[in-house]
Amino acid sequence: MSHETQAPDPVLAAYRKSIDNIDAALIHILAERFRITQAVGEYKARATLPPADPDREARQIARLRKLSEEADLDPEFSEKFLRFIIDEVIRHHEKAARGD
């Protein structure tokens, strides 16, 4: 029994190309966000401000949950995603505060 190679599905290929473009944009957006938060961490270290700001974090999470609902995106997913990013930023800020 021979297996014929099927031609790629052009509709699926177009969807995947869009997904790949979006993934690339997300990586660039995250890289820019972390460049900025790194500068914030360095500033906080120089100004002897605490690495974390729980009040701002709570406001940001509430804001993004609302945006998620408006965009038809699961707010639980959005909060987990943002929490992951915030935790990483805080880790960087703590390193900056220690002078690492």
TrEMBL record:
<feature type="domain" description="Chorismate mutase">
    <location>
        <begin position="6"/>
        <end position="97"/>
    </location>
</feature>
<dbReference type="InterPro" id="IPR036979">
    <property type="entry name" value="CM_dom_sf"/>
</dbReference>
<dbReference type="Pfam" id="PF01817">
    <property type="entry name" value="CM_2"/>
</dbReference>
<protein>
    <recommendedName>
        <fullName>chorismate mutase</fullName>
        <ecNumber>5.4.99.5</ecNumber>
    </recommendedName>
</protein>
<dbReference type="InterPro" id="IPR051331">
    <property type="entry name" value="Chorismate_mutase-related"/>
</dbReference>
<keyword id="KW-0413">Isomerase</keyword>
<dbReference type="InterPro" id="IPR036263">
    <property type="entry name" value="Chorismate_II_sf"/>
</dbReference>
<dbReference type="GO" id="GO:0004106">
    <property type="term" value="F:chorismate mutase activity"/>
</dbReference>
<dbReference type="InterPro" id="IPR002701">
    <property type="entry name" value="CM_II_prokaryot"/>
</dbReference>
<dbReference type="InterPro" id="IPR010951">
    <property type="entry name" value="CM_bact"/>
</dbReference>
<dbReference type="GO" id="GO:0046417">
    <property type="term" value="P:chorismate metabolic process"/>
</dbReference>
<dbReference type="GO" id="GO:0009697">
    <property type="term" value="P:salicylic acid biosynthetic process"/>
</dbReference>
